[in-house]
Amino acid sequence: MMRKQTNTLLSALAFAFASATVSVPSMLVASDAVAQEQKASEKKTRRVPTLRGKVYEQLARAQTAADEAGNVEEAISILKEVEDKSDSMNAYEKAMMYNFFGFIYYNNEDYTKALESFAKVVEQQPIPEKFEMTTLFSLAQLNLMQGNYDDTITYLERWESLNTGPVPVKNKVIKAQAYYQNKQYDEAAMWISEAVADHEAEGMIPDE
């Protein structure tokens, strides 16, 4: 009975989120100024090192190769050159580099390498909290898509540990889906029930 009820609720909310796509962190901070603004916003909570101009320039080269020339191999080659010098890079610079790797692999539909790269992003500390949270959510989505349900739950819980506000409905739906696929029906029912309640409170009641 619990399994049937949970499946019904999942189906109802799945329709509401049917148009949603996997979100991945943007490939490149738009400019040094934006990077510094993001860093400044983190000062109250964590001290984040600077993204230096010389590293930014190399990442921008990779972006140009991937976006403008459409040359994925060249973009990866540039990033590997940067990685070879990672011993001299700070945590934020390494995180941005691995974010680039992940973005390029994701766009090239190499999801295994994309997951590996995004996982390396959140291994680097300290990095801007918003950047870390965005990456954690992307990792949860990608792992769900790849059938890695335990990892999906782990990354969502890491996201929740950093979050200071209400947990969004989409997070609860993804967590419920992961529990359901793991045959943990009681946990799935709890999270999907919360998601439905939040959904209704927002005035978006799913059809039965």
TrEMBL record:
<dbReference type="Pfam" id="PF13432">
    <property type="entry name" value="TPR_16"/>
</dbReference>
<protein>
    <submittedName>
        <fullName>Uncharacterized protein</fullName>
    </submittedName>
</protein>
<dbReference type="InterPro" id="IPR011990">
    <property type="entry name" value="TPR-like_helical_dom_sf"/>
</dbReference>
<dbReference type="InterPro" id="IPR019734">
    <property type="entry name" value="TPR_rpt"/>
</dbReference>
